[in-house]
Amino acid sequence: MNKDKPKLSLQQLTTEVSKYRKYLWVFVLVFFIVVYSYVILSIQSFKNEQPSQSQISSNLKTTSVPVINQNVVNQLESMKNNSVSVTALFNQSRQNPFQ
Length: 99
Hints:
By secondary structure, the chain is mostly helical. The protein contains 5 helices and no strands. Helix 4 (70-82) crosses helix 5 (84-95). The chain starts with 9 loop residues before the first helix and ends with a helix.
């Protein structure tokens, strides 16, 4: 009781495909609508999602405190006391530090 399935020849296959060829644009359109909808829904779900506390703490960047060489500070202080132009520069910087 072995039932053999009929095998399609190349000719029969091309006729079957040609029947559905006129509906190909509908299948392509439906495919792109489904993909576009999936992308939009995924974006909406990610937009409303809040990061967890572990994600926040792992991505926080701590600022490092700059190290100031004490020899440079002493040299600048001695220059400030010796030169009038350096004293004026220090005073100007203290009055408007963003200039």
